[in-house]
Every structure is written in structure tokens, then in C-alpha cells.
Amino acid sequence: MSSTIYAFANQKGGVGKTTTAVNLGAFLAWRGRRVLLIDLDPQGNASSSVGVDRFALPVSVYDVFMGETPLRAILAPSAIEHLVVAPSTPVLASAELELANTTEREFVLRRALYQVDYSVAPPLPSLRDEFDHILIDCPPSLGVLTVNALTAADFVIVPVQCEYLALEGLAQGRIFWESLSFCSTPGNVDAVCLMSRIPGLDVVIANKTLTDFPIAAGADEDRALKLKTKIDAATGYDFVVFDSPPSLGLITINIMVAAKEIVIPVNMTFLALDGCAEIVETVEAVREGYDCPDLRVSLVVPVLYRNTRLANAILEKLREFFAERLSSTIVGYNVAIDEAQSYGQTIWEYAPRSRGAELLEALAKEIHGAV
């Protein structure tokens, strides 16, 4: 009997996607079910959450996508009986670029799951026939890795935070998952730059078609310089602020090449702390690899803070690792900030005298001083 395949997907990061996938997998394994957990997030948090030292393994799911290794060969036992992991490492972030010119790149994982091993006698069944449940932890983006998960899965589970922007992202994701279409919109900053209702603030808009950028530009020699070329040509602004996607793919690399100062908000969870360290490593790699000597992490900002032992332990880790780069402003959870988003307003329009407004004003002044 074939297994049931679930993809845990949301293009927004920090929504509990990995936590949900890992804990559901553990529950099923404790019930005696044979579970395969496939980690498609380059951050590798699903792998480490079940006791797999992903950096000590000679191969990972990246090697499967490159066509060098069968999926069965990379499987690693976890700390949980009956639960096996296909681990991920940060190098998986480059898969989208390396698969750019590969035909049927959207079906690599599906083929790997259905592959029967005839190299031994009797042949080993496909992994889909060997496990009761297969859980796929997707990266927080709608790129080719997530598309691979969706084409392989029977069901999609979408963890959603209870905030307005997450609801909007869910609607966009549903359109994407239903269509799985790839499209690209050429243009320049002037063509997509709109005036906002706030005087002095213009916005360069984005929509779900941006997810195709790594594939469309993957073969170009200047693929990491696309954004910088457009931004350098824009004039009349004192500040340019980029809102990066929650992944370390080609879009984020373009942002780092175009920027000089990196501000890293960090949620008060250990998985977010791990991701923060990887961002710092990526900044160093971009600075050296793309000749960006002025690029630096200027500020690390604790956000969604609540006074708990876990949050305070993470805060101490941040102070230890980042010292003077840690912001003095700690942005605690404030419902007014979420409510403002639900009305499509800034905190200063919605609740200018709220604690949330005070915190964000202090943070804005600190960022202004840091850069």
C-alpha cells in the first residue's frame, strides 16, 4: 500500500511549518507508523529538530536534486524510532539556480519517491511503497523546491499565523498551488514604483510572479546583480528599504548585493536563532564573493518578545553572539501592530499612542542612527 504524502508549505517564514511537520511526524512514529521526513528547507531545521547532525553527513537532499544520488542513499535515522529523515543543508539554497536549465525540474522529488532500486535482488520497492507516511517540510518560498513538494504530495497542509498579512499570503499561495504556473514580468523600477498614501514613501510592488525569478534568471551571468543595476539607476531617494523573502535564495542575494546595511529581526525561538546565524554567514559570503566591501549586518532586532524563560535565554544568546550589533530596542508582542496590519495601516496611523508605536519609533531612530 502506498504512503500518504503531505507537504507543509507556506511562503511566509516563522509560521510553525517545521514545528508542525516535525511533531506530526513524531506522533505518527510513536504510534508505530513508518515515517519519512523530507527536509526541503536549506536551513535544515527539520533535520536538526529530530537529532540529525546534518553537517556531519556526506550527502543530503541537495545531491538528489543534482541527480548524483538516489533518495534512498541519503536517508538518516533520527532520534525517534520509526522516523527516518532525508536531511537538508544550506547548499540546497543553490539548487534553484543549478536546476534553472533542467527539463522537468518540477518533478525531481516525485521521480525519486517512485524510483524502484533494481541494483539488488530482489529489487527494493519505491520509498512511497516502503513508508506509511511521507512528510515534506517546504522552504518558506514558492520556488522550485516547493513546487517539487507540491507535485509529489497528495495533500498540502498550510500552517498560518493569526495575523492579517499571513491571511493575504494564504490567498496568494492558494492561487499559486492551484495553477503551478510560471510567468515573468520584465520591467524596471520606474514601471513598478507606486506612490503610497504616506507622503515621501514610494513602493516597488511585488506579486507571486516574483517566485519565477530564480528560474528565469538562473542562467544569466549577472543574475546576482539584477536588482543593484535597477536600484543604482533610481534617483531622488534618501533611503531604500528592502523587505526580503524568508529564504536565502537568488532574490535575497540580489538584495544583499544592492544593499549596504542588513537589519535582521529575530523571533524569540531557537530555530529563528539558528536562521539568524546562517544569514550572517550568507552576508559574509556575499561580501567576499560579489565584491561588496561595505555590506554589513548593522543591527539584530529581537521581535515578538514575551517575558518567558525561553525568550530570555535566546536574548542572552543574542547578546553573546552580536554584542554591540544587538539593538537596545526589544520589540515585544503588541496586538496593536497586528491590528494595524489587518486594516492596511501603519501603527502610527492606527494607534499612534500605543506601546507598539513607541517601540517601533524607538527602533526606527536606532536603525537610523546605526546606518
Structure description:
With 371 residues, the protein is of the alpha/beta class. It has two domains: 4-179, 3-Layer(aba) Sandwich (Rossmann fold); 208-370, P-loop containing nucleotide triphosphate hydrolases (Rossmann fold). The protein is 41% helix and 13% strand. The protein contains 17 helices and eleven strands. The chain has a six-stranded mixed sheet, with helices on both faces. A three-stranded parallel sheet has the order 9-10-11. It has a two-stranded antiparallel sheet with strand order 7-8.
Question: What overall geometry do the principal axes of the alpha carbons give?
Answer: globular
Structural class: alpha/beta
Structural domains: how many: 2
Report the CATH topology name of the largest domain: Rossmann fold
CATH architecture of the largest domain: 3-Layer(aba) Sandwich
Q: Tell me the series of helices and strands, N- to C-terminal.
A: EHEHHEEHHHEHEHHEEHHHEHEHEHHH
Would you spell out the secondary-structure blueprint of this structure?
Elements: E1 4-8, H1 17-30, E2 35-39, H2 45-49, H3 61-65, E3 76-77, E4 83-86, H4 95-98, H5 108-114, H6 127-130, E5 133-137, H7 144-152, E6 155-157, H8 164-179, H9 189-192, E7 193-195, E8 202-204, H10 213-217, H11 226-233, H12 250-258, E9 261-267, H13 270-289, E10 296-305, H14 309-322, E11 331-332, H15 335-342, H16 347-350, H17 355-370
Parallel strand pairs: 1-5, 1-6, 2-4, 2-5, 9-10, 10-11
Antiparallel strand pairs: 3-4, 7-8
Helix pairs in contact: 5-7, 11-12
